[in-house]
Amino acid sequence: MAARESRETVAANQRLIRESMKVPLLSREREVELATRWVEHRDEIAMRELIRAHMRLAISIALTGQRSGLPLSDLIQQGHLGLLQAVEKFDPTLGVRFSTYATWWIRSAVQDFVMRNTSIVRIGTNSAQKAMFYRLRRLTALHAASSEPGDMSAAVDLIVEETGVSRAEVERLLVQVTSSNLSLDAPRGEDGEFVLSDLIVDERPTPEMAVGDSVDRGVGSAWIADALGTLPARERYIVRRRHLDDEPATLANLGSDLGVSKERVRQLEKRALDRIKEQLRKRLSDYGITDIHDAFGHLHA
């Protein structure tokens, strides 16, 4: 369904179309002259004349986007922006007519606008998907006019044959192209007693849970720090380097630092961790927790 515009907007669109059609077309020589004045001297008078003479082109391309249901005034505005980009990028020395060059920029601006606003689901994020998007819209429109309503299998087969894309990918994009958006605030139920957003589960922790987790982490860190303080200096050094540094040290590196073998470092590490775990078990038992891995799973020999 097309977007409904006010009478004033419709009248303004019609007036703009009539006025654009009255502007005479430019000869090749005049076109090159105006473009050169803009490129070399930034002559705004020349630039405006070049734009006015090609506004009918921007409008004609904008009109092709009406099937999307978007307001014509917005489509014309996007066509105008594409035309401005074309003027900025055009090189009059290449011998190409400006209308040929501008068509690409205008069409790209209008098509990008349609894809951004047809659905709240982002589609057409690369050039291949953009091409597929418009092919799908055209083929589904032909299908709707020639096939039985609701039977999309024939359209899918046709699109697969025409594009060479897998059936699964066509069906996925087809759902996005042909489906309408649902508001999360739309009433649901027989009497509208709830909205769709009520059915969406928020998996984030509640503020109470977040505060509790933060407190638990703080308490746990304090307990581990206390336990580390009871260890001999060499064992405390090994545990810090092996378990608390951003880049854990290897047994070989620690053996070299301490002047002992890798096996001796492993033994000292295991003894230190056993001592820490024993102290933590005593503290956790006061809270009814018997498995230390539930709270300090990262401490392992």
Rounded average pLDDT: 78
Number of strands: 2
Structural class: mainly alpha
CATH class of the largest domain: Mainly Alpha
Shape label: elongated
- Beta-strand level of the residues, as a percent range? under 5%
User: Spans with pLDDT under 50 lasting ≥5 residues?
Assistant: none
| Beginning-to-end CA distance, first to last residue | 66 Å
Summarize the structure.
With 301 residues, the protein is mostly helical. The chain has helices spanning 7-22, 28-41, 44-53, 55-63, 72-89, 98-118, 127-146, 153-163, 167-178, 207-229, 233-244, 251-258, 262-285, 293-296, and strands at 187-188, 194-195. The chain has 14 helices and two strands; from the N terminus they run H-H-H-H-H-H-H-H-H-E-E-H-H-H-H-H.
SSE layout:
Blueprint: H1 7-22, H2 28-41, H3 44-53, H4 55-63, H5 72-89, H6 98-118, H7 127-146, H8 153-163, H9 167-178, E1 187-188, E2 194-195, H10 207-229, H11 233-244, H12 251-258, H13 262-285, H14 293-296
Antiparallel strand pairs: 1-2
Explain what the structure shows.
Keywords: DNA-binding, Sigma factor, Transcription, Transcription regulation. This is RNA polymerase sigma factor. Sigma factors are initiation factors that promote the attachment of RNA polymerase to specific initiation sites and are then released. Belongs to the sigma-70 factor family. The chain is mainly alpha-helical. The protein has three domains: 1-118, Up-down Bundle (Four Helix Bundle (Hemerythrin (Met), subunit A)); 121-180; 207-296, Winged helix-like DNA-binding domain superfamily/Winged helix DNA-binding domain (Arc Repressor Mutant, subunit A, Orthogonal Bundle). 67% of the residues lie in helices and 1% in strands. It has 14 helices and two strands, in the order H-H-H-H-H-H-H-H-H-E-E-H-H-H-H-H. A two-stranded antiparallel ribbon has the order 1-2. It is elongated and about 95 Å long. The two termini are 66 Å apart. The model has no long low-confidence stretch (mean pLDDT 78).
